[in-house]
Amino acid sequence: MNPHKNIYFIDMLSGLHQSPIISNLKTLSVIIGTISPISPIQPQIILRRNFISPMAEESLRRSLAEKQSTIEARGNAIRELKSSGASKSEIDDAVKALNALKLEKTSIENQLKASISSSGGGDTNDAFRQAVVNTLERRLFFIPSFKIYRGVAGLYDYGPPGCAVKSNVLAFWRQHFVLEEDMLEVDCPCVTPEVVLKASGHVDKFTDLMVKDEKTGNCYRADHLLKDYCKEKLENDLSISADKAAELKHVLAILDDLSGEQLGAKLKEYGIVAPDTKNPLSDPYPFNLMFQTQIGPSGASTGYMRPETAQGIFVNFKDLYYYNGNKLPFAAAQIGQAFRNEISPRQGLLRVREFTLAEIEHFVDPDDKSHPKYSEVANLKFLMFPRGEQLSGQSAKRLSLGEAVSEGIVNNQTLAYFIGRVYLFLTRLGINEERLRFRQHLPNEMAHYAADCWDAEIESSYGWIECVGIADRSAYDLRAHTDKSGAQLVAQEKFAAPKEVEKLVITPVKKELGLAFKGSQKMVVEALEAMNEKEAMDMKAALETKGEVDFKVCTLEKTVTIKKSMVSISKEKKKEHQRVFTPSVIEPSFGIGRIIYCLYEHSFYMRPSKAGDEQLNVFRFPPLVAPIKCSVFPLVQNQQYEEVAKQISRSLTAAGISNKKDITGTSIGKRYARTDELGVPFAVTVDSTSSVTIRERDSKDQIRVNVDEVAAVIKEVSEGRCTWADILQKYPAHTSASADDEN
Amino acid sequence: MNPHKNIYFIDMLSGLHQSPIISNLKTLSVIIGTISPISPIQPQIILRRNFISPMAEESLRRSLAEKQSTIEARGNAIRELKSSGASKSEIDDAVKALNALKLEKTSIENQLKASISSSGGGDTNDAFRQAVVNTLERRLFFIPSFKIYRGVAGLYDYGPPGCAVKSNVLAFWRQHFVLEEDMLEVDCPCVTPEVVLKASGHVDKFTDLMVKDEKTGNCYRADHLLKDYCKEKLENDLSISADKAAELKHVLAILDDLSGEQLGAKLKEYGIVAPDTKNPLSDPYPFNLMFQTQIGPSGASTGYMRPETAQGIFVNFKDLYYYNGNKLPFAAAQIGQAFRNEISPRQGLLRVREFTLAEIEHFVDPDDKSHPKYSEVANLKFLMFPRGEQLSGQSAKRLSLGEAVSEGIVNNQTLAYFIGRVYLFLTRLGINEERLRFRQHLPNEMAHYAADCWDAEIESSYGWIECVGIADRSAYDLRAHTDKSGAQLVAQEKFAAPKEVEKLVITPVKKELGLAFKGSQKMVVEALEAMNEKEAMDMKAALETKGEVDFKVCTLEKTVTIKKSMVSISKEKKKEHQRVFTPSVIEPSFGIGRIIYCLYEHSFYMRPSKAGDEQLNVFRFPPLVAPIKCSVFPLVQNQQYEEVAKQISRSLTAAGISNKKDITGTSIGKRYARTDELGVPFAVTVDSTSSVTIRERDSKDQIRVNVDEVAAVIKEVSEGRCTWADILQKYPAHTSASADDEN
Questions:
Q1: To the nearest whole percent, how much of chain B has pLDDT over 90?
Q2: B661 within a domain of the structure (yes/no)
Q3: Residues A449, A552: one domain?
Q4: Nearest-CA distance B626 → chain A (Å)
Q5: Are residues A269 and A231 in the same domain?
Q6: Is residue A315 domain-shared with residue A462, that is, in the same domain?
Q7: What region holds the WHEP-TRS domain (chains A, B) (predicted)?
Q8: A 712-731 → B contacts, CB under 8 A
Q9: Which A residues 314-353 touch B at CB under 8 Å?
Q10: Boundary residue ending a domain (A118, A140, A156)
Q11: Given CB atoms, is B396 within the 8 Å cutoff of chain A?
């Protein structure tokens, strides 16, 4: 085990930094990831890995190529020896030497294979993921949708425990954001008319590049085919040169930034064909990822299934602003389904065609992005990965939000406040804070209008996964809908007293301009009026000193001479009673399904059964998200105990605590194992009619509690009003050596 | 006010009972409704109405027609008098008599107008609905979706208070059904592949009949046009005869049962044209109401937005049965969006293109539909409207569920149990139990496979609205998916000991049959094998006594003679270890949006302001569903009080109680009015720093409570652990004559 976790990353980054295209880091961090083999029993070693540096890989590829050419040269030499009639002993010696060389080559090949397969820890990760996914599927946390009809790629059902986890996550989201931050929650339809998504840009730009099998019409994502080709070559073709390997790695790194033409050129260069048929492929072209439909029967009204929930909030801005008493800032929130008609979904539960989003749009005065509750998060300290660290090849580092804001790393207090709240939300759900980082977008990753963007990335067996995006989108969205709809999506700030403001006034003297420029007059007037304050004041100064000035009129593509008589420029004082402006929006957007999947991985571990003959699966969900809070078992099959179990179950249900009775005759150890595998944090075992034991899942500690106190104890600890440690203090430990603790 | 609420209904029904088509009652009950003018201040008079019986209307129409023809005859007579040169006095007398007749006619016309407009209480209902809907829209309970783009018919957003009500209703649904009944909740995608909806029948049968304007292509629902025509004639054309009026009413009553051809014929008969252009219309043809889309990019995989959530449960039956330990009965549940691409949505919030359903599929052994918790609901007594009462023209009556089951009115205990649970659910939400009835489907309303169906109907300003359907769908759905998918969606009952069962064994003797029937042998063999037990035993008896028997072979379309030698029929005893069967499913299906809309109407009332100068709106939501549980007001603008208000608000939030501060300088009376209009049940007014007042919305009672107890008191009463009456006992009343109670 080599703990140099980030060497590979650093090397790749510095290499890329020198390349002309540096817009690849996002992809890169996903591809090379910092994927870890996870030891579920010892979570503290999660961040280590088997590792051979890429430098080693490169030198192995070079040695292999050298060895190969030496072997070829020696082979030729032997043939020459033979044809020139050399002595047998001479030939034998040469063959012996050649065989030794071949052995050395095999040894290098083996080292290279080991190097490739260990970088990224692929096998260990795959095995871990398989263990998690198998458990999830067997216990119906999820079910491939429409399974009996052989399913549909990218569609999954939440089965009973998955559905309960989801509903708990959403309830906590509502408490943590909507209720605690006093947000205005809305609920808009999924079916959305085209005009809305035209304004938002989705109709034109929400696309992936696709290629078609020219004979069968089968469709593929162009970047997937190129990625598969490069990975396949890198992993399985030991004969490629170190230079070729570097080239392929570079292609993988810049994949997301290739244009359709560049992708098409690469596919052609590498001779990539349709994987299923080996037929030639079309050139890449954009495929819109929205599910399209028709609203109403006429066929005249195109609609789409919304790709995000945010647009429903933006179009309601005016009403929501009014509801909030025409005051800023305020936040609106929405939880709902969103859709993405993937060309060919991969990555299991992480890349799906329908998913639940929870989105917040916090509207704020662009001139004042302070946040009243900022001080509550300023001291939080966690892994952040600012732009500077990414570009200079450093790794994520622990920063306090307060430092990040005061050093200008995070753009403003409100953005920082939400980053902090997201951190609290995710870690309280049970996301391992060692495997959570906030990565800042690089300038080229962000839209031109965005002020700053941070992704909450969670490390999983697939690498670092973007689960929450927190973006300061400036006034872009409201402006886009104002332009398209004509509705003024703006806010007003009424001044306590009228304010005197200085306004630039440019008055072209049309008569003079007409005489001087005749037919071009209009363009000159427009150019004069379009000057900004600095340009105008410079012109004013020049006219006053020199009487005339050169002035470039772009629309005429020439420079003209402006005389003092042709324009008057002044600053006038005006009284204004209010300020009208388009608010900025800060948008935290949560991929609920991704968060839940990462939570599954972070919560999963295995431990040996008591007999030591098998590994048992456990999900260490906190009570907050556990699908069922409590199991209730009679120790043995016995009517009295079953009656008590029923009574306890009823009292738990009445208290709103989800619970599950298991009155099968299975051994208590097996019943514990079953319930551990569902992540149930507490198990009540009825072994008398007056008091019972409560067992905590991870510690396996047991306490004795009176039957009529059980519901209250479980409720308190499930709802987070006290911890298991508090409970342990209060109730006597149960230390029976009997069969009831065979797990 | 005439309290004969159901006379109209009875007459219509008995009239219809004589008509050949009696399948019209459902429509009828919606059209003529039992719509009531609602007095929000005195809910006890809700069920009364202004009323003139249809008999009066009919006799008025007849008098009017008689009067008209007398007038015409007299007119002719006068013309004859004139042309025959009668005396002026003779003519004057005749004209005078004619004018008297015309006055009488006008009087009858006025009576008839009054009769038409009062039946159904249309105006009062419309005014009440307008008041509710205006309040809902002004306070953002709902918002027409995409309003700034002029909206889309049939799509609505839930604004902040509406969204909170919805989320409270769903949370209670989860507690009341999923948790208390131990159901398996699932969450499946909206996007559904065609094969699933082909199996369920939706691809072929989920349609409405549509006509097109032959020139413009505008689309209309055929039944809407016919309905509009009939209503317009009945309401505004006083000249139609009583027979014509009866015919039009009959058409309205049978509207839902007309085939495309019948509808087309009626449209032609009445000369109905496109309402917008007066162009001719196409013949009616079925339009599928599902939103269609394509899954993936190839165009080869058609999908639909699901029209209901139930199919997601059926296709998962096998996994869910396994999850439940391969035991019946069990119920699965799902909450989610469903879609219906209406041709032209009407009825505002009741008929929408996207809506939330909450559905339960309770799987049960068809041979044992008893329910273990049946006794908990058997004594519930409420309005039921069984088939017999509908067909014999009686009205809904109060029945206990126990009676209904023991008298065979409700098919089985499990169905009855869910009817009872639905009753409890709706009334606990705040639905007025006087305006809630359970109406049984008539035989022709039910699918052929259904064993029994009941709708929970809630009376609103639109009439009685189906809000929950509770159907025993037998094994239909599981069988349909078994047939289509090949997956065996069945249950097993393992016998404790092998059971000896008698099985009918029919063994055709092929040699004899071949000789006798040659080429037709195969059909005869199949017909013999297809006999049921009775047919086979009858044949056996006949063969034993007479040696041969006539036997009709349908596939041959003739009767053949079967001799004793041709078939052996016996009953054999076999040992069976288990029974394999397709479970029956009992399906309660909740239209959440409709329930919420009816709840709004049932909760809305107006009361005069203290000054008596205006009517104030109030929603009397129970705390369970209220969007905000508590308002917090400082009595006057004052930093100390605001600090206390903040502190109380924080403590409420921490306890998970939604609350809203109002620190504006508005008078306390106006602030109470604002919060009453949102249905907030409790208001805390800070008028000192140690103790505050809590006011209950409907009674306006106030109590004094210490600041640090407020959150606990509000939590208890909001979560239903105690009532306001309990609280009144415990805390001193606040009886200030000061300005803080000006409402």
A1: 64
A2: yes
A3: no
A4: 14
A5: yes
A6: yes
A7: 63-119
A8: none
A9: 315-316, 318-320, 323, 325, 337, 339, 341-344, 353
A10: A118
A11: no
CATH of the domain at A244: 3.30.40.230
> Does one domain contain both B473 and B519?
no
User: Which chain B residues have a beta carbon less than 8 Å from that of A210?
Assistant: 297
Residue A681 has pLDDT above 60, yes or no: yes
Residues A321 and A218 in one domain: no
Instruction: Tell me which chain B residue has its CA closest to the CA of residue A486.
Output: B148
Distances (CA, A) of B82 to A227, B73, B93: 104, 14, 12
Which secondary structure element, helix H or strand E, spans residue A338, and what is its range? strand A330-339
Q: Which of B262, B288, B314 is the last residue of a domain?
A: B288
CATH number for B83 = 1.10.287
In A564-710, which ranges are E strands? 567-581, 584-591, 604-608, 615-619, 630-634, 659-661, 682-686, 691-696, 702-706
B341 and B467: one domain?
yes
Closest-CA distance, A148 to chain B, in angstroms, reads 6
Of A348-352, A523-527, B110-114, B267-271, highest mean pLDDT: B267-271
Assess contact for A436 and A383: CB atoms under 8 A.
yes
* C-beta separation of B586 from B645 below 8 A: no
In CATH, what number is assigned to the domain containing residue B608? 3.30.930.10
Question: Beta strand pairing status for B659-661 and B630-634?
Answer: parallel
Whole-Å CA distances, A276 to A213, A280, A347, B422, B626: 9, 11, 20, 54, 58
Closest by Cβ to A187, choosing from B157, B171, B485: B157
Residue A418 included in any domain: yes
Residue (of A261, A590, A565) closest to A422 by Cα position: A590
| Residue B658 confidence (pLDDT) above 90 | yes
Q: Parallel, antiparallel, or unpaired for β B615-619 and B659-661?
A: unpaired
Domains in chain B, number: 5
Tokens in use for A352?
């799906």
- Is residue B627 within 8 A of residue B161, CB to CB? The reply is yes
Q: Which of A159, A486, A658 sits opposite B323 (nearest CB)?
A: A159
Q: Do B186 and A158 touch (CB under 8 A)?
A: yes
Mean pLDDT over all residues of chain B? Answer: 87
- Whether the CB-CB separation of B677 and B617 falls below 8 Å is answered with yes
pTM assigned to the model: 0.83
Cβ(B505)–Cβ(B569) under 8 Å?
Answer: yes
Give the pLDDT mean for A256-280. 92
pLDDT digits 0-9 by tens, B20-70: 333 333 333 333 333 333 333 333 222 223 334 556 778 888 888 888 889
Across the range A710-735, mean pLDDT stands at: 92
- Is residue B87 left, alpha or beta, with left meaning phi > 0 and alpha meaning psi from -120 to 50? beta
DSSP label of A150: T
Most B CBs within 10 A among A187, A219, A661, hence the mutation to make, goes to A187
With a cut of 50, say whether residue B421 has pLDDT above it: yes
Let me know if residue B104 belongs to a domain: yes
Average pLDDT of the segment spanning B209-226: 92
The structure tokens listed for B536 are 């086979």
| SS3 of B600-645 | HHHHEEEEECCCCCCEEEEECCCCCCCCCCEEEEECCCCHHHHHHH
Q: Are residues B82 and B148 in the same domain?
A: no
Confirm whether B535 is domain-assigned: yes
DSSP letters along A341-374, please? --SS--SGGGS-SEEEEEEEEEEE-TT----TTG
Q: How far apart are CA A101 and CA A63, in angstroms?
A: 12
pLDDT of residue B116: 75
pLDDT at B551 over 60: yes
Q: Which of A131-140, B293-302, B589-598 has the lowest mean pLDDT?
A: B293-302
Between CA A718 and CA B90 the distance in angstroms is 100
Would the pLDDT of A10 be above 80?
no
Cβ of residue B85 closer than 8 Å to a chain A Cβ: no
A436 and A338 together in one domain: yes
A321 neighbourhood in chain B, CB within 8 Å: none
